[in-house]
Amino acid sequence: MRIFSKTLSNPRRLLFCLCAGLLLSWFTLKGTGLHANLDLLCQLHRILSTEADLLSQHNSTGTNSHLSHLKDVKLPRILYTKSDVFNPQRTDVLTVTPWLAPIVWHGTFNRHILNTQFHQIDVRVGLTVFAIKKYTRFLNTFIESAEKFFMVGHKVNYYVFTDRVNEIPNFTFAKGRRLVVLEVPAYERWQDVTMRRMEMIRDFSIKRFVKEVDYLACVDVDMVFLDEVGVEILSNVFGALHPGFFEKSRNEFTYERRPQSSAYIPVELGDFYFAGGYFGGVIEEVIKLTNYCHNAMMADKQQNIEALWQDESYLNRYFLSHKPTKILSPEYIWNNYYGSPAVVKTKRFLGIDKIYDEVRF
Ligand code: 48C
Predict the structure, then answer these.
(1) Are the C-beta atoms of residues 147 and 175 closer than 8 Å to each other?
(2) Alpha-carbon Rg of the chain, whole angstroms?
(3) Nearest Cα to 129, choosing from 160, 164, 106, 168?
(4) pTM above 0.85?
(5) Which residues contact 196 (CB under 8 A, 6 or more apart)?
(6) Measured between alpha carbons, how far is residue 280 from residues 48, 117, 287, 288, 325 in Å?
(7) Is the dihedral of CA 279, 282, 288, 291 positive or negative?
(8) Interacting residues of 179 by C-beta distance below 8 A, sequence separation 6+
(9) Which tens digits make up the pLDDT trace of 192-236?
(10) List 232, 256, 285, 312, catalytic entry
(11) Around Cβ 332, how many Cβ atoms within 10 Å?
(12) Domains of the chain by range and CATH?
């Protein structure tokens, strides 16, 4: 009785018995020699039992031995509307470049899915900002608004480069977030202050940031966060479309046009015009970008050349030959000087109007 119930419970054995029964009756009907069909049955049994052995091996180790190193990825269950292949979220703007880099606009991504993915890897994000000389006055608004909108719920290190360490306000940070003050020299000319950011970001990335964070975002300080800026910006190397040029053609871009300069871009080249106050990526890529830009600036300095828009010109030159893997829409670096076009659904990060002469000397 036990053997019978064992057979019923074991699908393989049951299958074998069924086949054997069928074969036996078939050959009996057909009158073929008994030993011939016995031989066939033995073959069938060998096949089934080999497979059964394989299966039992699998079951006894739980997984195939060569797959056992794969970690079980447990993605929490998230409910969201399915994307519609024939009905893209945005049809009013370009959402991918010819080299297949996404262009991030409101409505083109699900932040919940992205947060889940980046929490899976426990991502650590660094945000660099320079507050040299009178620009320390922008820090309070910058940090307070970043606490509300920048990478909320993730680990963030604010890296504040300044010559005035005693002017850095005290802040209270949410869990997993902190501010690191990095004392650096102040250059005389504002052009040098802004351009030397590349060198300082490179040097600190090599000696410190590479050990502390996975991604870096490098931005201007005279700004305020007004809406969420989250992990949707993260990619190997990213830039942001300048609010003043995203609607213009390439010959209107204010690239450096002198062939003698390392930042030179001829009128027939160029993809987009990127804002100097917003770039980033994984540390290795940020080191490559800042190193390139710094070396290009130093080469020009040797020839007494300074590109038209300082570090922004060199950044645009870099992105021509080292295409960004993700591009942020002007939502991510806006200035009200350019009004409120309909395609910009939200101004996430906004320039603070200042009287230049008052803060720049
Ligand atoms: O920190 C300073 N101090 C200065 O005297 C001049 C520039 N800067 C830094 O460079 C700030 O972080 C500025 O945001 C950045 C240059 N960008 C601007 O001044 C406008 N956002 C274009």
Answers:
(1) no
(2) 31
(3) 160
(4) no
(5) 187
(6) 58, 19, 10, 11, 11
(7) positive
(8) 143, 157, 158, 160, 168, 171, 173
(9) 999 999 999 999 999 999 999 999 999 999 999 999 999 999 999
(10) 312
(11) 26
(12) 2-61 (no CATH), 103-359 (3.90.550.10)
Decide: 190 in ligand 1 pocket, CB within 6 A. yes
Q: Report the interhelical angle of 283-302 vs 197-204 (nearest 10°).
A: 140
Q: What does the block give as tokens for 355?
A: 């009287």
Place of tokens 């802040």: 171
**Residue 360 vs residue 262, higher pLDDT:** 262
Ligand 1 centroid – CA 200 distance (Å) = 14
Ligand 1 pocket, 242 CB below 6 A?
no
What are the pLDDT digits (tens) for 48-82? 555 455 444 444 444 456 666 566 667 678 999 99
Q: Is 312 a catalytic residue?
A: yes
Give the Å distance between the CA of 135 and the centre of ligand 1.
7
